[in-house]
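Support reply, case 0932

Customer input (verbatim):
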Amino acid sequence: MAGLCARSSLRFVSKISTPVGSIFDRNLALKPALPRYPCNEISDRRPYVPEVGGKYFKVLAMIDSIYRELTASEVEQAHEQKEKRTQSEKVAYRLLPWSMRQNVERNPPVAFVGCKSAFFPDLFLRNEKVCIEIDGGYHCKRERQDAHRDKVFRNHGFIVIRIKNLDTCINVAFWERLLEGLNKVEDTVSHPHLAAIKEELRQMISDEISNWTRIDTDPI
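Our regenerated output:
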């Protein structure tokens, strides 16, 4: 009995001597409170890992994300968006440089924390934080909605590039519009991958133009 009491007391002392916010044992743990980010702020999305005895435990690791969970209707709407892709959107995807195409998401549901409705960008690069929209003629009737949408994405650190659907008819025109949008970015620290993407675009434009044939229109 004495041995049992001693073991029980030792376990009790070990619990109360553990710092608050760390792991006590296998069955008891306190979850540290993490700050909540409003819709217009950016989280670093790094996991919080409590430290005990010089070792890191991932039992309570949490990723504070700028995205919220999708509703069932938003998931269904995402499938509808993919079925309604225009020809210009399909061409734009094929014209993307390889460094962008291998990571791009097409019409993904993007729902930010604090925003009631989700967005479905045409071409979305999550890690590079680039959002590309291919605008048809109907967008002239929804400039206000597009401006609000662009503001939400920019407030979350994304680059928003809008390209007219007519620019997808000529590959060089599309690449030039894409390059113009990327050149407007001043914060290169938050977008470290853009330098390689822009260099690839410049090379693609140069290679394509070098293959053009000049037609002399001067009268004989």
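We compared this against your earlier run and they match. Two observations from our side: The chain has two domains: 30-66, 72-210. The radius of gyration is 26 Å. Please reopen the case if you see a mismatch on your end.
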